[in-house]
């Protein structure tokens, strides 16, 4: 039996960060050294994107990375955004990874899941560009369990955060060819606090 995901499994928060936090993002990204070729070992014809790691060096063991995030000199301000998300929208979530992705035209991500079935958790995606034209595309698409239909989509509007069940198949669409900017996101990956391997 397949799981039935719906648009109720996706929440979109507009004006989720302050103008001051947007300015801090702009400044931090202006000093970022991006790595190309993410995800590694993807599907055969996938076009990799730009990526850099922020926190979560012990993600494989599902350890909380909040202290690692706080200690990050350039990106520590993200903890305030994370704490607000936890207080209202993700109360049962343990932060296990934080990283940024960047995409230019043609770098669509493959359809994937952030959490395996049986490892429940949520992902929060912060759209980081301070301007985004609707015609540039770059939507975050959410699919049904069989990956045969789109059930929801989120345009990468500035200061927007999308929260979703990590088991939902999803993909990030790349910007249109007339977009002259990198589509930038920061992902906060989680596992439920009460989850433990048996």
From TrEMBL:
It comes from the Bacteria. GO terms for molecular function: oxidoreductase activity. The keyword Oxidoreductase applies. Residues 105-186 form the Prolyl 4-hydroxylase alpha subunit Fe(2+) 2OG dioxygenase domain. Keywords: Oxidoreductase. Its EC number is 1.14.11.-. InterPro entries: Pro_4_hyd_alph_FE2OG_OXY. Coiled coil: none annotated. This is 2OG-Fe(II) oxygenase.
């Amino acid at each position: 039996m397949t799981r039935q995901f719906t648009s109720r499994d996706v929440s979109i928060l507009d004006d989720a960060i302050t103008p001051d936090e947007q300015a801090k993002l702009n400044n931090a990204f202006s000093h970022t050294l991006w790595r190309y070729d993410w995800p590694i070992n993807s599907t055969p014809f996938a076009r990799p994107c730009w990526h850099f790691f922020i926190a979560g060096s012990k993600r494989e063991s599902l350890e909380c990375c909040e202290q690692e995030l706080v200690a990050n000199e350039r990106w520590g301000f993200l903890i305030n955004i994370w704490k607000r998300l936890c207080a209202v929208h993700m109360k049962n979530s343990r932060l296990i990874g934080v990283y940024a992705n960047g995409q230019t035209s043609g770098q669509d991500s493959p359809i994937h899941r952030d959490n395996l079935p049986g490892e429940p958790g949520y992902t929060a995606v912060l759209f980081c560009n301070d301007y985004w034209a609707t015609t540039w595309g770059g939507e975050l698409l959410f699919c049904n369990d069989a990956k045969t239909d789109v059930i929801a989509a989120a345009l990468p509007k500035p200061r927007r955060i999308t929260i979703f069940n990590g088991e939902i198949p999803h993909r990030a669409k790349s910007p249109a060819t007339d977009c002259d900017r990198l589509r930038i996101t920061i992902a906060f990956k989680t596992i439920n606090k009460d989850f433990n391997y048996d």
